[in-house]
Structure formats: C-alpha cells, structure tokens
Amino acid sequence: MQPAAFGATVVTDRPAEVAAFYQEHFDLQVTVDLGWFICVRRGDADWELAIVERGHESVPAAVNALPDSTNVFGFIVDDADKTAAALVEGGVQLEGEVVTEVWGQRHFFVRDPEGSWIDVIQLVAPDPSWLAENMPS
User: Fold this and answer.
1) How far is the C-alpha of 75 from the C-alpha of 110, rounded, in Å?
2) What is the rounded distance in angstroms from the CA atom of residue 6 to the CA atom of residue 1?
C-alpha cells in the first residue's frame, strides 16, 4: 500500500475551539467546516488534521468512549525558541522546557484544548559522538 496523503484526527466535544487553536497558534487554515467535522491544513501541504465531534456516528464507539486524547502530533518549525515564545505570548502553556536532544532535535511539547500532545520540533545537527555510536557508516 502506498498512501497518497496523511491525515490525523482529533475527537473532541469542542471542534470549533480545537480548530481555532490550530488556526491561531500554528497558522493552519480551515478547508472544510461542517460543524461536527472540521479540517485544517497549512497551504497546499499533502497532509491535514481533521477534528471530529465526539459521539458522531462516523467515530467508532470505542474511540468515543475514550475520555482523554492519546494523540501526539509532531510539527517541524524553523525556530523552536521563537515558536515557544510566540505560543507562551498567545497564552499556551508549555509542557516542559525547550530542550536539545543529542539525536538532532530542539523541541518542546504543548497540548491543544482537547489534550492532544504537540511536539514542536526544530531539526538541528546531531551530536557527533551520538551519531558515531548510533549511526555507524
């Protein structure tokens, strides 16, 4: 199988509020808004994020029954520190500090209004020692 595109879904009691969060803080635009189903996307990206109202018949009963989100979405950005500062200025709480990982990421986490985790990632050069130990040529 070769999927043509990728999409993820947030199941929530508050589709409009969750969509507004992604619009305001991640510059995603609404491409479809049916009230119970909203899609957001950045420009002409070949991925999208769907937001579906909990309890809608299109959502499996087992998913509707889950009280907490277990989603983790990763967004690649140019500057993690600048993005973190903008989010904090916009009233979003960081879930920990901005950290640089030896494998080549500077990142931090936030959560959307439904509780979905968002890993905001800046790609950086990996530590040469880590690279030599873990990615031998």
Assistant:
1) 11
2) 13
CA distance 24 to 40: 11
Measured CA to CA, the distance from residue 54 to residue 63 in angstroms comes to: 8
- Look up the pTM and report it: 0.87
Q: Are 73 and 95 in contact (CB under 8 A)?
A: no
Q: What is the pLDDT along the chain (137 residues), one digit of tens a residue?
A: 777 778 899 999 999 999 999 999 999 999 999 999 999 999 988 899 999 999 999 988 988 888 887 788 999 999 999 999 999 999 999 999 999 999 999 999 999 999 999 999 999 999 999 999 998 77
